[in-house]
Queue: 2 jobs
Job 1
Amino acid sequence: MDQAPKKLFIKTYGCQMNVYDSERMAEALGASGYVTTEVQDEADMVLLNTCHIREKAAEKVYSDLGRLRPLKEAKPDLKIGVAGCVAQAEGEEILTRMPLVDLVVGPQSYHRLPEMEARVGQGGRAVDTDFPEDDKFEALKTRPKAKRGPTAFLTVQEGCDKFCAFCVVPYTRGAEVSRPAARIVSEARGLVEAGVREITLLGQNVNAWHGDLEGAEGGLAALVGQLARIDGLERIRYTTSHPNDMDEGLIAAHGHEAKLMPYLHLPVQSGSDRILKAMNRKHTAEQYLRLIERIRAARPDILLTSDFIVGFPGETDADFEATMDLVREVRYGSAYSFKYSPRPGTPAAERKTQVEPSVMDDRLQRLQKLLGDQQRAAQEAMVGRETTVLFEKPGRLPGQMVGKSEHLFAVHVAAPESLRGEIARVRITASGPNSLAGELAG
Ligand code: SAH
Ligand code: SF4
Ligand code: F3S
């Protein structure tokens, strides 16, 4: 007899890779009879796919777990799982601190979720934070063919060997591993058959992808080249890149690969050589600036974005001013900036020279003002110009659609809903706080 499907509610924190992993976890639990729900209260299983990057992100998980208590009391059979980077970093401790949690699964072992779920069903609790030899993507079933929206993420590389002094990722995601090209291409074909037009290739250091393609330029550029040959795939992006892994082939691809969008997230973290050294970033501000020059020579209209940390231990006013100078020189299209957060087990957390919170606040405010001004300028520079837009969904106003420009700006356009999933030429007419407005170009 067929059983009614069980319902799975997943909450995703953190980076795009967690968004991708959440999809794959839902697919894995499909084998155990689960379908996803958007309504937490009707779930038979709640899975929090967590992020450990800053203290706030990690603590949020515990407050959200606390808030699940009444639901668990009302539904004793409710299963609660913690996945992702907090799961990896804290493992068993989560079970001790939070008795309502039934299972804890790390980012490299979630292909084992169905067995873990079964164990929990028999009244046990389960923890798996292994970095198994077997590749989870090989163990997971092929992806369902169900129709999807026009954009998708696709993980091609995971893990990090860089060990920046502030960062937990090398510990939570493990060493750098690249997926084989053939698997990636076949997954991308499946996504395109399901309606996807734009794929963003993901990796903690995506441009360190070194799969199994031949030749001196067998890196990410070669993979992009293979993917670009898929009919129906119109746009390719990739994130996140490390400056030291931007090889010549990839820079050149921005010049000749029409499907590669003119957008690059290239985190620099700081503009001070002293701080870059203390962060173990292994490049100087000058080297980064020269790299940007080469990238812009290959693709003059490329939009650059970055991540910054203010208040890294030992950061002086002069160091911070060097960051402001670098930002003024690069002119970013947008960027993320964060106050330094000491993370357990990382070398920077041990430093005695932590920066005062009020100083950090002040620096963050100044940096965000500058980056905000630059974003506004980048958006305003689009007004009067034409770009292509991939339409994703209806806008707030009737008769309006919203999509993304080549530069990843949201664009609102009066357009029929039949354009969903289509790419059209749009003339930008106005720039708003966080999006552009435009009209279909004739
Ligand atoms: N792999 C990517 C991104 C890693 S996490 C990269 O190397 O660029 C995303 C961003 O979070 C980082 O770029 C950094 O700016 C920020 N971050 C990481 N650790 C942090 C910490 N301890 N405190 C504050 N911000 C942090
Ligand atoms: Fe973290 Fe640095 Fe690795 Fe990025 S490159 S994931 S910031 S250690
Ligand atoms: Fe967070 Fe892990 Fe991503 S720590 S940023 S979810 S890799």
Job 2
Amino acid sequence: MDIKISPSILSSDYANLEKELGRVSNADLIHIDVMDGHFVPNITIGIPVIAAIKKVCDIPFDVHLMISEPYDYVEAFAKAGADIICFHAESEGNISATIDRILFLGKKPAIAIKPDTPVDVVLPYLDKLYMVLVMTVEPGFGGQSFMERVLPKITKIRELRPDIDIEVDGGVDFSTVSLAAEAGANVFVAGSAVFGSACPSDAIETLKNNAQAV
Ligand code: DX5
Ligand code: ZN
């Protein structure tokens, strides 16, 4: 499996997004956290900001929707420049219909599950999904601690689908990246570990090397 690093701009300087994206030019994906203040107790950025930064960044956008009604918004996010559209299994609306809508729009569908959500909820959809996001913190905020207890869910998905992208998000740093890779993840979101570092591009290389060394 290809190892991919997806820095989360949640931990970047929102006053200087173009410059911040320039500091992670070696990233494989750009992780964009969209929060609606309803599905999660925080509000971040949305469609117009994604459309604006799409004009200054060639790296594919990995858009993590932490919103209540993803079906209603996937078209707008697709038009704004999302490449991977990831929505939560716990959100309202029909999961199959949402996946089909994303595919119809020519984008890559992914489902995210919170730490306490059983892995079984994504299993019926694995054949249609481009990626599964296994959250290793409660969604809503950057800078939380990695939950190791979530790792068996990753291993289960990897056993069933050796070829699918499995992303981990939350508390990924130079050491926890190895735990997640050992469990079977190959796509690593990192907010604080990348943008909190003096040299974000070096942090990306270190994360990648540590994941590859497993
Ligand atoms: C949390 C977000 C994460 C967040 C991760 O709800 O989904 O993407 O940015 O931040 P760190 O890497 O700092 O835990
Ligand atoms: Zn995220």
